[in-house]
Each structure stands twice: as C-alpha cells, then as structure tokens.
Amino acid sequence: MSRNVLILPGDGIGPEIVAQAERVLASVNDRFQLGIDTDHALVGGSAIDADGVPLPEATLSKAKAADAILLGAVGGPKWDGLEMAKRPEKGLLGLRSELNLFGNLRPAILYPQLADASSLKPELVSGLDLLIVRELTGGIYFGQPRGIRELENGEREGFNTYVYSESEIRRIGRMAFDAARRRGGRLCSVDKANVLEVTVLWREIMNELAAEYPDVELSHMYVDNAAMQLVRAPKQFDVMVTGNMFGDILSDCAAMLTGSIGMLPSASLDENNKGMYEPIHGSAPDIAGQNLANPLATILSVAMMLRYSLDAAEAAEAIEAAVGQVLDQGLRTADIHADGKQKVTTEEMGDAVLAAL
Length: 357
Ligand code: ATP
Ligand code: MG
Hints:
- By secondary structure, the protein is α/β, with parallel strands linked by helices.
- The protein has helices at 14-31, 45-51, 57-65, 89-98, 122-125, 166-182, 197-210, 223-232, 244-258, 296-308, 313-328, 346-356; strands spanning 3-10, 36-40, 68-73, 103-109, 129-135, 147-150, 156-159, 186-191, 217-222, 239-242, 265-269, 275-279, 331-332, 342-343.
- The longest helix has 18 residues, at 14-31.
- The chain is globular.
- It starts with a strand and ends with a helix.
- Bound molecules: adenosine-5'-triphosphate and magnesium ion.
- GO terms for molecular function: 3-isopropylmalate dehydrogenase activity; magnesium ion binding; NAD binding.
- Mg(2+) binds at residues 224, 248, 252.
- It comes from Reinekea blandensis MED297.
C-alpha cells in the first residue's frame, strides 16, 4: 500500500527541523517497509514570497490528496506588517478549516531526563504522560454572530457566540474516547456545565458516548478546577477532552509542566484520522538559520503521524525510544541544555536520533 505524506517546511526554523524529521521518516520507512512517498509544498511566509498568498492552490490540492501532512512552522517578522487576512498564519488556519481538522491532540510528556526543566517539583511531574484533545474548528472562536456593535445609548459592546452542535461534540468525543482506549483508559471531559448551557449539552453527549466505551472510565471536571488540578497534581490525568477555548488555555498550561517547548509534538485530525502534524512551538525567528533549534518536537510529530494516520505504531515507538536514548546519552540542544550535558546542533541531534534508530 502506498501512502503519501506532504511536507510543508514553512518559515524560520521550519526548514531546519523538518529536514531532520524527514531523515527520520525516511529511515523508518525503509526499516519497517511502510511504502511512504513524500512530496513538498510551500505554506506561510515562504508561499507569500513565491506566490503572493499564504496558502497557494497547489499546496491546498496536494494537502487534500495526501494521507498526512508534516508541517514545520510559519511566520516571522518579515511578514508582520501585512494585514491580518494575508499573514503567514492564515495559511495554517486555511489548511485546518479546508481539511476539516477538528481534533487537536497535544500530548504533554515529561522525559525523565528533563525533569529539572519543569515548572513544577520533579515528584509532581516525573513520569507525566497526558494527552489533551481539543476541539479545533468550532466553539466560541468560530461561533456566529460575533463582532463589536453600537448600542442605542451610544455605547459599544463586543460579543461572541459559544456554540456546539451535537454532531460536533460527538465527533470530538469519539476521537477522545478512541485515544483513551489506546492509552490508559481514562478520559476527563472538561466543561463549565454549572454556568454555560452549551457545555451542559457537551456533558450530556459525553455521557451518551461513555455507554459505547465501557472500557473507558469517563469523569467530568469544571474548567476552573481542571486548571488548578493540572498544576497541582497533573499525573491524575490520562486523556482530557475539551472545547476550543478551554483547550487552548489548558494545553499551553500542560506544555509548561514539561518545561520544554522544543520537545512537544501535536496532531490535528479529521474524521478519518487524516492529519496534519507539527511541533507546538512557532518559527523561532530569533534562532532561525543557525543550526540551533531543537528538532525533537518535529521528530516526535513524525511518530504521532505514524501512529494516528499511517497505522504504523511500531515505527512510532521506535522513534520515541530513539529520542529517549539520545536524551539518555546526555545530548541537548541549547533550549534544553543543562550543566554536565553535551550541547549539540540541530543536525547533530538528527544524526544522533538516526544512529539510535
Ligand atoms: P508562534 O506565534 O508561532 O507560536 P511564538 O512567538 O509563540 O510563535 P516561538 O516561535 O514558539 O514563539 O518561540 C518562542 C521561543 O522559544 C523563542 O525564544 C524560540 O527561540 C524558542 N523556541 C521555539 N521553538 C524552539 C525549538 N524547536 N528549539 C529551540 N528553541 C525554540
Ligand atoms: Mg505562540
């Protein structure tokens, strides 16, 4: 079976970190006989420079045809002056909506070798391995009506609409239950059902789904408590599922528990587990082109891609084990460097992962 992966290096450190991830993908493709073909396209600032738009038609049609997409990062100061609708970030948002990537999966894993980088005490986070499933294409970020309007008394008011249909809740719920089933079997649904009707419906649908997943243990938590519990005792969680805005906030919060923006991958999936995979960090213009960036978040994004979109869990595990090994060897890019460890470049880190594989 041949599978097609579209590679979108993007801007800033994107091309450097994606180059290392591609080497890793090629290596497991050979070793596990995965039959993966790769293709490349432009998105973001590099697409603006070449074609005048952040998401060219050619990129979009390749993305639609691909089984999975690996993205580096987009954006940078060069394009900051452009009006909102023409910015590099629009390329990313366009891909998410055109491909209907409604489910965002963000693992927060603390590698024991990096325990001292966490914002929490080592005993609270050692062994931390949680997954946040965030709804990405609905909720208050997209709800209509929205805007700023003038009232009769001459004062203005700003307004947004927090809306989820049953089917939107059900599909993100299923994605989360499926993920929980593959992991520790526990799912915590986060809402504000004591205040917001939309989340009363959310909770109802989650309970309905629970009947279909007797092997998954479902619990509910209000978002304020969930934020507190995340920084108090994060290891109580296995999988968390929540709406767009709550997920935005909670997933950044969970990322900090692992202390290392350069280590965290993410996936954005559609109904058929087709997905776009990218590191959670941005294009880091401050270190671009210097062979300094940590490629591990992108390499771990390849592992997620193999697991969720390409049905190659064994290859995913091999990559994750190789990343563990290079950390064991004491190799660190600048962002995760500590006393007594060996500082390496982007390329050297890629070399080490390949050798470990
Ligand atoms: P975005 O708006 O795209 O999320 P951002 O402004 O939030 O971008 P990042 O690009 O993620 O910021 O960079 C934040 C900081 O983290 C910068 O100092 C950057 O150099 C650093 N950083 C980000 N990614 C990496 C990486 N892979 N390796 C090393 N440092 C990184
Ligand atoms: Mg950011």
